[in-house]
Amino acid sequence: MGPVVEFDEVGMRYAGGTPVLDGASFVLEAGEFAFLTGPSGAGKTTLIRLVMMATRPTSGTVALFGRDTAAVAGDDLTDLRRRMGVVFQDFRLLDHLTTYENVALPLRVRGREEASYRPEVRDLLQWVGLGDRMDARPPVLSGGEKQRAAIARAVITRPDLVLADEPTGNVDPPLARRLLRLFVELNRMGTSVLVATHDEGLMDQVDAARLHLRDGLIRAG
Prior knowledge:
The protein is of the alpha/beta class. The chain is about 35% helix and about 25% strand. The protein has a single domain (about 5-220), classed as Rossmann fold. The protein starts with a strand and ends with a strand.
């Protein structure tokens, strides 16, 4: 099937700043699970943003599902993004929607009828421990509850690729392990997974590749 994500000598520099990435290269194969680790400020979030095409590299090539993202626009860009599920550090839940509605949103925008996806949304919310918070809106949720809702929203479509930026940073260790199992199960069904984290204990739970980001470069190990 070929690589799902491929960075080739990628550089990323924000205006007036030092390079965040400076010739970074790595490959995430189809069906692979990998952790992205590195010190705070190393550029893990920037790398995730490059993969999801929220920003463009200053130099080098970012390829997604075999396509150079620099050449993707319009409907093709939308189609590629729909193949991904993303867990953001700041959650990005919509305050005017309930927990159930936030998680169901990716299915709704794809045109599915509510009756067809209601059971799977409810089952997933039960699994992540939000069965009794389905009707609550984000302003009254705790940080951990928002995190779980964001993860559920990212995986509800069973995407080809899941990108998670510190997905367990707001939950306790037992729940972190349970949420990690959700990513592992998706991976077993064929989803490629890239998890950015600094939690060594979490990474020790899974036999997965580790990509170390430091000084603008990525080293496997």
